[in-house]
Design brief:
- The complex is a heterodimer of chains A (121) and B (310).
- Chain A has 121 residues and is mainly α.
- The longest helix of chain A has 20 residues.
- Chain B starts with 16 loop residues before the first helix and ends with a strand.
- Chain B is mostly helical and 310 residues long.
- Helix content of chain B is 47%, strand content 8%.
- Chain B is built from twelve helices and five strands.
- In chain B, helix 3 crosses helix 5 and helix 6 runs antiparallel to helix 7.
- Among the domains of chain B are: 88 residues, no CATH class; 103 residues, Outer Surface Protein A, domain 3.
- The chains are: A mainly alpha (121), B mainly alpha (310).
- The interface between A and B is large, with 43 and 62 residues.
Protein backbone atom coordinates (compact mmCIF):
# COMPACT_ATOMS: atom_id res chain seq x y z
CA UNK A 1 0.00 0.00 0.00
CA UNK A 2 1.28 3.42 -0.76
CA UNK A 3 1.07 6.36 1.59
CA UNK A 4 -2.24 7.62 0.17
CA UNK A 5 -3.95 4.27 0.58
CA UNK A 6 -2.57 3.89 4.08
CA UNK A 7 -3.94 7.32 4.96
CA UNK A 8 -7.36 6.39 3.61
CA UNK A 9 -7.47 3.27 5.77
CA UNK A 10 -6.31 5.16 8.86
CA UNK A 11 -8.92 7.84 8.18
CA UNK A 12 -11.57 5.14 7.88
CA UNK A 13 -10.54 3.70 11.23
CA UNK A 14 -10.66 7.13 12.86
CA UNK A 15 -14.09 7.79 11.35
CA UNK A 16 -15.21 4.48 12.81
CA UNK A 17 -13.89 5.42 16.23
CA UNK A 18 -15.80 8.72 16.13
CA UNK A 19 -18.98 7.08 14.88
CA UNK A 20 -18.76 4.38 17.55
CA UNK A 21 -18.27 6.96 20.28
CA UNK A 22 -21.39 8.79 19.20
CA UNK A 23 -23.66 5.78 18.77
CA UNK A 24 -26.22 5.08 21.43
CA UNK A 25 -25.09 2.48 23.91
CA UNK A 26 -28.30 0.55 23.37
CA UNK A 27 -27.21 -0.21 19.82
CA UNK A 28 -24.09 -1.98 21.13
CA UNK A 29 -26.05 -5.06 22.20
CA UNK A 30 -27.05 -5.67 18.59
CA UNK A 31 -23.41 -5.78 17.56
CA UNK A 32 -22.16 -7.76 20.53
CA UNK A 33 -22.43 -11.21 18.97
CA UNK A 34 -23.93 -14.35 20.48
CA UNK A 35 -24.74 -14.22 24.15
CA UNK A 36 -22.67 -16.80 25.99
CA UNK A 37 -24.77 -19.65 27.31
CA UNK A 38 -23.08 -19.70 30.69
CA UNK A 39 -23.80 -16.11 31.60
CA UNK A 40 -26.65 -16.75 34.00
CA UNK A 41 -24.91 -19.57 35.81
CA UNK A 42 -21.68 -17.65 36.00
CA UNK A 43 -23.45 -14.75 37.57
CA UNK A 44 -24.96 -16.96 40.19
CA UNK A 45 -22.12 -19.29 41.00
CA UNK A 46 -18.99 -17.50 40.07
CA UNK A 47 -18.31 -16.14 43.51
CA UNK A 48 -15.94 -18.88 44.45
CA UNK A 49 -13.30 -16.89 46.20
CA UNK A 50 -11.97 -17.32 49.64
CA UNK A 51 -14.08 -14.41 50.72
CA UNK A 52 -16.82 -14.94 48.23
CA UNK A 53 -20.19 -13.74 49.33
CA UNK A 54 -22.77 -16.46 49.41
CA UNK A 55 -25.50 -14.21 50.60
CA UNK A 56 -26.85 -13.33 53.97
CA UNK A 57 -26.77 -16.79 55.51
CA UNK A 58 -24.15 -18.33 53.40
CA UNK A 59 -21.00 -17.19 55.12
CA UNK A 60 -18.65 -20.12 54.75
CA UNK A 61 -15.44 -18.26 54.81
CA UNK A 62 -11.88 -18.79 55.71
CA UNK A 63 -12.34 -20.04 59.23
CA UNK A 64 -15.62 -21.77 58.78
CA UNK A 65 -17.16 -18.85 60.65
CA UNK A 66 -20.80 -19.43 61.07
CA UNK A 67 -21.50 -15.98 62.29
CA UNK A 68 -22.37 -14.46 65.56
CA UNK A 69 -25.42 -16.61 66.17
CA UNK A 70 -23.83 -19.80 65.08
CA UNK A 71 -21.25 -19.86 67.82
CA UNK A 72 -21.85 -22.76 70.09
CA UNK A 73 -19.24 -21.77 72.57
CA UNK A 74 -19.95 -18.92 74.82
CA UNK A 75 -23.71 -19.20 75.06
CA UNK A 76 -24.04 -22.90 75.20
CA UNK A 77 -21.70 -23.70 78.05
CA UNK A 78 -24.21 -23.34 80.79
CA UNK A 79 -23.13 -25.47 83.64
CA UNK A 80 -20.55 -24.28 86.05
CA UNK A 81 -18.30 -27.25 85.59
CA UNK A 82 -19.39 -27.62 82.01
CA UNK A 83 -18.39 -31.23 82.02
CA UNK A 84 -21.40 -32.58 80.18
CA UNK A 85 -22.74 -29.65 78.30
CA UNK A 86 -19.70 -27.97 76.95
CA UNK A 87 -19.56 -28.49 73.22
CA UNK A 88 -17.03 -25.88 72.64
CA UNK A 89 -13.87 -27.77 72.04
CA UNK A 90 -14.89 -29.54 68.87
CA UNK A 91 -17.80 -27.59 67.59
CA UNK A 92 -17.14 -23.91 67.98
CA UNK A 93 -15.80 -22.67 64.70
CA UNK A 94 -16.38 -19.00 65.03
CA UNK A 95 -13.72 -16.41 65.39
CA UNK A 96 -14.82 -15.44 68.87
CA UNK A 97 -15.79 -18.89 69.87
CA UNK A 98 -14.92 -20.74 72.97
CA UNK A 99 -11.42 -21.71 72.02
CA UNK A 100 -9.33 -19.07 73.55
CA UNK A 101 -7.90 -18.00 76.79
CA UNK A 102 -11.19 -17.88 78.67
CA UNK A 103 -12.95 -20.57 76.82
CA UNK A 104 -13.12 -24.28 77.16
CA UNK A 105 -10.41 -25.50 79.41
CA UNK A 106 -10.77 -29.17 78.78
CA UNK A 107 -11.13 -31.31 81.80
CA UNK A 108 -13.04 -28.79 83.88
CA UNK A 109 -15.27 -27.83 81.08
CA UNK A 110 -16.13 -24.55 79.53
CA UNK A 111 -15.74 -21.49 81.62
CA UNK A 112 -16.89 -18.75 79.39
CA UNK A 113 -15.99 -15.22 80.34
CA UNK A 114 -19.53 -14.27 81.37
CA UNK A 115 -19.97 -17.21 83.65
CA UNK A 116 -16.90 -16.92 85.76
CA UNK A 117 -17.47 -16.75 89.42
CA UNK A 118 -15.68 -13.99 91.25
CA UNK A 119 -13.49 -16.44 93.11
CA UNK A 120 -12.33 -17.93 89.86
CA UNK A 121 -10.82 -14.72 88.63
CA UNK B 1 7.40 -48.45 39.05
CA UNK B 2 7.18 -44.84 40.30
CA UNK B 3 9.68 -44.00 42.97
CA UNK B 4 8.13 -43.00 46.31
CA UNK B 5 8.43 -39.33 47.13
CA UNK B 6 10.78 -38.06 49.80
CA UNK B 7 9.76 -38.91 53.33
CA UNK B 8 7.07 -36.64 54.69
CA UNK B 9 8.55 -34.65 57.54
CA UNK B 10 6.23 -33.89 60.38
CA UNK B 11 7.65 -31.85 63.24
CA UNK B 12 6.90 -33.39 66.62
CA UNK B 13 6.16 -29.95 67.95
CA UNK B 14 5.49 -26.69 66.11
CA UNK B 15 7.70 -24.06 67.66
CA UNK B 16 8.66 -21.87 64.71
CA UNK B 17 7.23 -20.63 61.43
CA UNK B 18 9.55 -23.02 59.58
CA UNK B 19 8.09 -25.94 61.53
CA UNK B 20 4.60 -24.63 60.95
CA UNK B 21 5.29 -24.51 57.21
CA UNK B 22 6.61 -28.07 57.37
CA UNK B 23 3.51 -29.20 59.22
CA UNK B 24 1.25 -27.44 56.71
CA UNK B 25 3.08 -29.12 53.82
CA UNK B 26 2.52 -32.50 55.43
CA UNK B 27 -1.21 -31.83 55.90
CA UNK B 28 -1.52 -30.48 52.36
CA UNK B 29 0.30 -33.52 50.99
CA UNK B 30 -2.25 -35.84 52.57
CA UNK B 31 -5.32 -33.73 51.88
CA UNK B 32 -4.47 -33.16 48.22
CA UNK B 33 -3.54 -36.78 47.50
CA UNK B 34 -5.98 -38.28 44.97
CA UNK B 35 -8.75 -40.49 46.30
CA UNK B 36 -9.06 -44.19 45.52
CA UNK B 37 -11.57 -45.30 42.87
CA UNK B 38 -14.03 -45.79 45.74
CA UNK B 39 -13.52 -42.15 46.77
CA UNK B 40 -11.63 -43.02 49.94
CA UNK B 41 -8.25 -41.94 51.25
CA UNK B 42 -5.33 -43.89 49.84
CA UNK B 43 -3.83 -46.48 52.16
CA UNK B 44 -0.32 -45.26 51.55
CA UNK B 45 1.01 -41.71 51.68
CA UNK B 46 3.16 -40.29 48.91
CA UNK B 47 6.35 -41.51 50.62
CA UNK B 48 5.05 -45.07 50.79
CA UNK B 49 4.32 -45.15 54.51
CA UNK B 50 0.87 -46.23 55.66
CA UNK B 51 -1.43 -43.20 55.64
CA UNK B 52 -2.75 -44.31 59.02
CA UNK B 53 0.71 -43.90 60.53
CA UNK B 54 1.30 -40.47 58.99
CA UNK B 55 -2.19 -39.28 59.90
CA UNK B 56 -1.63 -40.36 63.50
CA UNK B 57 1.27 -37.96 63.75
CA UNK B 58 -0.77 -35.06 62.41
CA UNK B 59 -4.15 -35.28 64.09
CA UNK B 60 -5.50 -36.92 67.22
CA UNK B 61 -8.40 -39.32 67.07
CA UNK B 62 -11.72 -38.19 68.52
CA UNK B 63 -14.08 -40.36 70.52
CA UNK B 64 -15.81 -41.35 67.27
CA UNK B 65 -13.25 -41.07 64.51
CA UNK B 66 -9.72 -42.30 64.06
CA UNK B 67 -7.00 -39.89 62.98
CA UNK B 68 -7.21 -41.31 59.46
CA UNK B 69 -10.97 -40.88 59.32
CA UNK B 70 -10.69 -37.30 60.49
CA UNK B 71 -8.16 -36.46 57.80
CA UNK B 72 -10.12 -38.37 55.21
CA UNK B 73 -13.00 -35.92 55.63
CA UNK B 74 -10.71 -33.13 54.44
CA UNK B 75 -9.14 -35.26 51.72
CA UNK B 76 -12.57 -36.04 50.24
CA UNK B 77 -13.84 -32.54 50.79
CA UNK B 78 -10.91 -31.07 48.84
CA UNK B 79 -11.30 -33.40 45.88
CA UNK B 80 -15.07 -33.22 45.68
CA UNK B 81 -14.92 -29.43 45.73
CA UNK B 82 -12.20 -28.98 43.11
CA UNK B 83 -13.67 -31.62 40.81
CA UNK B 84 -17.11 -30.09 41.16
CA UNK B 85 -15.70 -26.68 40.30
CA UNK B 86 -13.93 -27.95 37.17
CA UNK B 87 -17.03 -29.91 36.21
CA UNK B 88 -19.05 -26.71 36.29
CA UNK B 89 -16.45 -24.71 34.38
CA UNK B 90 -15.98 -27.19 31.52
CA UNK B 91 -19.29 -28.23 29.95
CA UNK B 92 -17.69 -28.44 26.51
CA UNK B 93 -14.90 -30.76 27.58
CA UNK B 94 -17.40 -32.96 29.39
CA UNK B 95 -19.53 -33.19 26.28
CA UNK B 96 -16.59 -34.26 24.11
CA UNK B 97 -15.01 -36.72 26.52
CA UNK B 98 -18.00 -37.99 28.46
CA UNK B 99 -18.25 -37.81 32.24
CA UNK B 100 -15.85 -40.65 33.10
CA UNK B 101 -13.03 -39.57 30.83
CA UNK B 102 -13.49 -35.98 31.90
CA UNK B 103 -13.15 -37.02 35.53
CA UNK B 104 -9.92 -38.88 34.80
CA UNK B 105 -8.58 -35.88 32.91
CA UNK B 106 -9.55 -33.55 35.76
CA UNK B 107 -7.84 -35.74 38.37
CA UNK B 108 -4.68 -36.08 36.31
CA UNK B 109 -4.66 -32.33 35.74
CA UNK B 110 -5.12 -31.50 39.41
CA UNK B 111 -2.35 -33.88 40.41
CA UNK B 112 0.00 -32.21 37.92
CA UNK B 113 -1.25 -28.68 38.55
CA UNK B 114 -2.89 -28.54 41.98
CA UNK B 115 -4.80 -25.49 43.07
CA UNK B 116 -2.35 -22.73 43.94
CA UNK B 117 -4.79 -19.88 44.29
CA UNK B 118 -7.12 -18.88 47.12
CA UNK B 119 -9.95 -18.75 44.61
CA UNK B 120 -11.39 -21.61 42.59
CA UNK B 121 -11.82 -19.19 39.72
CA UNK B 122 -8.24 -19.88 38.70
CA UNK B 123 -8.52 -23.66 38.77
CA UNK B 124 -8.84 -24.22 34.97
CA UNK B 125 -6.15 -21.67 34.09
CA UNK B 126 -3.55 -24.32 33.14
CA UNK B 127 -5.87 -26.96 31.77
CA UNK B 128 -5.20 -26.14 28.11
CA UNK B 129 -1.47 -26.39 28.75
CA UNK B 130 -1.93 -29.75 30.48
CA UNK B 131 -4.01 -31.10 27.59
CA UNK B 132 -1.19 -30.22 25.21
CA UNK B 133 1.46 -31.70 27.52
CA UNK B 134 -0.42 -34.93 28.19
CA UNK B 135 -2.52 -35.73 25.12
CA UNK B 136 -3.26 -39.29 26.22
CA UNK B 137 -6.17 -38.11 28.39
CA UNK B 138 -8.00 -36.58 25.45
CA UNK B 139 -6.96 -38.69 22.45
CA UNK B 140 -8.21 -38.72 19.67
CA UNK B 141 -9.85 -35.34 20.30
CA UNK B 142 -6.85 -33.50 21.73
CA UNK B 143 -6.97 -30.55 19.32
CA UNK B 144 -10.68 -30.01 19.95
CA UNK B 145 -10.24 -30.37 23.72
CA UNK B 146 -7.34 -27.92 23.65
CA UNK B 147 -9.53 -25.35 21.88
CA UNK B 148 -12.35 -25.96 24.34
CA UNK B 149 -10.13 -25.60 27.39
CA UNK B 150 -8.77 -22.31 26.05
CA UNK B 151 -12.26 -21.11 25.21
CA UNK B 152 -13.75 -22.06 28.57
CA UNK B 153 -10.90 -20.38 30.43
CA UNK B 154 -11.26 -17.28 28.22
CA UNK B 155 -14.86 -17.00 29.37
CA UNK B 156 -13.72 -16.86 33.00
CA UNK B 157 -11.23 -14.13 32.10
CA UNK B 158 -13.80 -12.19 30.10
CA UNK B 159 -16.32 -12.43 32.92
CA UNK B 160 -14.27 -10.80 35.63
CA UNK B 161 -11.09 -9.55 33.96
CA UNK B 162 -10.11 -5.95 34.60
CA UNK B 163 -11.78 -3.09 32.74
CA UNK B 164 -10.02 0.23 32.21
CA UNK B 165 -11.58 3.59 31.35
CA UNK B 166 -12.84 3.53 27.80
CA UNK B 167 -11.14 5.37 24.98
CA UNK B 168 -13.39 8.35 24.19
CA UNK B 169 -13.92 10.73 21.30
CA UNK B 170 -12.20 13.42 23.36
CA UNK B 171 -9.02 11.31 23.36
CA UNK B 172 -8.94 11.55 19.57
CA UNK B 173 -8.94 15.33 19.41
CA UNK B 174 -5.38 15.83 20.51
CA UNK B 175 -4.06 12.70 18.84
CA UNK B 176 -1.69 12.61 15.89
CA UNK B 177 -3.30 10.02 13.57
CA UNK B 178 0.08 8.82 12.40
CA UNK B 179 1.23 8.03 15.93
CA UNK B 180 -2.04 7.18 17.61
CA UNK B 181 -1.92 4.11 19.81
CA UNK B 182 -4.94 2.35 21.21
CA UNK B 183 -5.13 -0.40 23.79
CA UNK B 184 -7.62 -3.19 24.29
CA UNK B 185 -9.56 -3.84 27.45
CA UNK B 186 -7.83 -6.49 29.53
CA UNK B 187 -11.03 -8.54 29.76
CA UNK B 188 -11.33 -8.84 25.96
CA UNK B 189 -10.14 -12.28 24.87
CA UNK B 190 -9.06 -12.94 21.27
CA UNK B 191 -8.81 -16.56 20.22
CA UNK B 192 -7.69 -18.24 17.02
CA UNK B 193 -9.37 -21.62 17.00
CA UNK B 194 -9.19 -24.77 14.92
CA UNK B 195 -12.78 -25.70 15.73
CA UNK B 196 -15.93 -23.52 15.97
CA UNK B 197 -16.32 -24.24 19.66
CA UNK B 198 -18.44 -21.14 20.26
CA UNK B 199 -21.36 -22.62 18.34
CA UNK B 200 -20.71 -26.00 19.90
CA UNK B 201 -20.99 -24.62 23.44
CA UNK B 202 -24.20 -22.78 22.61
CA UNK B 203 -25.68 -26.00 21.21
CA UNK B 204 -24.64 -27.95 24.33
CA UNK B 205 -26.24 -25.40 26.59
CA UNK B 206 -29.46 -25.43 24.63
CA UNK B 207 -29.59 -29.20 24.82
CA UNK B 208 -28.86 -29.17 28.55
CA UNK B 209 -31.61 -26.63 29.11
CA UNK B 210 -34.05 -28.87 27.27
CA UNK B 211 -33.00 -31.95 29.24
CA UNK B 212 -33.32 -30.09 32.50
CA UNK B 213 -36.91 -29.46 31.65
CA UNK B 214 -36.69 -25.75 31.00
CA UNK B 215 -38.88 -26.57 28.05
CA UNK B 216 -40.89 -29.31 29.69
CA UNK B 217 -44.03 -27.97 28.09
CA UNK B 218 -42.60 -28.58 24.66
CA UNK B 219 -44.24 -31.41 22.73
CA UNK B 220 -42.48 -34.71 23.33
CA UNK B 221 -41.34 -34.84 19.72
CA UNK B 222 -39.35 -31.67 20.18
CA UNK B 223 -37.53 -32.88 23.28
CA UNK B 224 -34.17 -34.50 22.68
CA UNK B 225 -33.73 -38.12 23.60
CA UNK B 226 -31.60 -38.73 26.66
CA UNK B 227 -28.90 -40.34 24.57
CA UNK B 228 -28.86 -37.82 21.76
CA UNK B 229 -25.66 -35.82 21.74
CA UNK B 230 -24.63 -32.60 20.17
CA UNK B 231 -22.39 -33.71 17.28
CA UNK B 232 -18.75 -32.84 17.74
CA UNK B 233 -17.77 -29.91 15.53
CA UNK B 234 -15.76 -30.44 12.39
CA UNK B 235 -12.43 -28.75 12.02
CA UNK B 236 -12.92 -25.22 10.73
CA UNK B 237 -10.53 -22.44 11.65
CA UNK B 238 -12.16 -19.34 13.07
CA UNK B 239 -11.40 -16.33 15.20
CA UNK B 240 -13.58 -15.35 18.11
CA UNK B 241 -13.60 -12.43 20.50
CA UNK B 242 -15.03 -13.16 23.94
CA UNK B 243 -16.11 -10.04 25.71
CA UNK B 244 -18.62 -8.68 28.16
CA UNK B 245 -21.23 -6.02 27.87
CA UNK B 246 -23.45 -4.90 30.74
CA UNK B 247 -22.39 -7.89 32.81
CA UNK B 248 -23.12 -10.49 30.11
CA UNK B 249 -20.60 -12.51 28.14
CA UNK B 250 -20.73 -12.57 24.36
CA UNK B 251 -18.90 -14.48 21.64
CA UNK B 252 -18.23 -12.49 18.51
CA UNK B 253 -16.78 -13.99 15.36
CA UNK B 254 -14.07 -11.93 13.69
CA UNK B 255 -12.95 -11.82 10.11
CA UNK B 256 -9.30 -12.88 9.82
CA UNK B 257 -8.14 -9.34 8.94
CA UNK B 258 -10.07 -7.90 11.88
CA UNK B 259 -8.47 -10.44 14.20
CA UNK B 260 -5.00 -9.55 12.93
CA UNK B 261 -5.63 -5.82 13.47
CA UNK B 262 -6.87 -6.37 17.02
CA UNK B 263 -3.92 -8.57 17.91
CA UNK B 264 -1.50 -5.98 16.50
CA UNK B 265 -3.19 -3.32 18.64
CA UNK B 266 -2.89 -5.61 21.66
CA UNK B 267 0.80 -6.06 20.88
CA UNK B 268 1.19 -2.28 21.24
CA UNK B 269 1.61 -1.29 17.62
CA UNK B 270 0.47 2.20 16.59
CA UNK B 271 -2.89 2.25 14.80
CA UNK B 272 -1.39 2.81 11.33
CA UNK B 273 0.96 -0.15 11.67
CA UNK B 274 -1.73 -2.34 13.17
CA UNK B 275 -3.92 -1.64 10.14
CA UNK B 276 -1.06 -2.46 7.79
CA UNK B 277 -0.51 -5.72 9.65
CA UNK B 278 -4.16 -6.63 9.26
CA UNK B 279 -4.76 -5.94 5.61
CA UNK B 280 -3.20 -8.22 3.01
CA UNK B 281 -0.02 -6.88 1.41
CA UNK B 282 -0.36 -5.30 -2.03
CA UNK B 283 -0.14 -2.00 -3.79
CA UNK B 284 -3.79 -1.19 -3.19
CA UNK B 285 -6.10 -2.22 -0.37
CA UNK B 286 -8.81 -4.68 -1.44
CA UNK B 287 -12.06 -3.11 -2.69
CA UNK B 288 -14.32 -2.02 0.14
CA UNK B 289 -11.49 -2.27 2.67
CA UNK B 290 -11.99 1.27 3.96
CA UNK B 291 -15.71 0.67 4.54
CA UNK B 292 -15.03 -2.57 6.35
CA UNK B 293 -12.34 -1.02 8.55
CA UNK B 294 -14.67 1.84 9.42
CA UNK B 295 -17.47 -0.56 10.33
CA UNK B 296 -15.17 -2.71 12.49
CA UNK B 297 -13.82 0.26 14.43
CA UNK B 298 -17.30 1.69 14.93
CA UNK B 299 -18.49 -1.59 16.39
CA UNK B 300 -15.43 -2.13 18.58
CA UNK B 301 -15.71 1.42 19.89
CA UNK B 302 -19.41 0.92 20.59
CA UNK B 303 -18.63 -2.22 22.53
CA UNK B 304 -16.05 -0.40 24.62
CA UNK B 305 -13.14 -2.63 23.58
CA UNK B 306 -10.67 0.23 23.39
CA UNK B 307 -9.01 1.95 26.29
CA UNK B 308 -6.11 4.33 26.59
CA UNK B 309 -2.66 2.77 26.58
CA UNK B 310 -1.02 2.76 30.00
Amino acid sequence: MNKTHRSIIVAAALAGLYAGALTLKAAAADAAGSAAPTTTEKGKDSCKGKDGCHGKDGCKGKDGCKGKDGCKGKDTCKSADGKDTCKAKDTCKAKDGCKGKDGCKGKDGCKAADEKKPDQK
Amino acid sequence: MPRPAAKIRIPARVGSTAELAEFQRAVWGLVSRPLTPGHRMQRRAADGRPTREVAGRIVKPSDRLTALERLEIYNRMYWFRVLDSLHEDCPGLRAVLGERRFLRLAEAYLVRYPSRSPTLRDLPSRLARFIREAPRWTRPHTALCHDLARFEWAQVEAYDGAARPRFAAADLRAADPGRLRLALQPYLQLLELRYPVDDYLIAIKQRTALLRGDASHAPAGLRPGRRSRVPRPRRQACQVAIHRLDGRIYFKRLEPAAGRILRAIRAGRPLARALAAGLPPGRRPPPGAADRVQAWFRTWMQLGWFCRPE
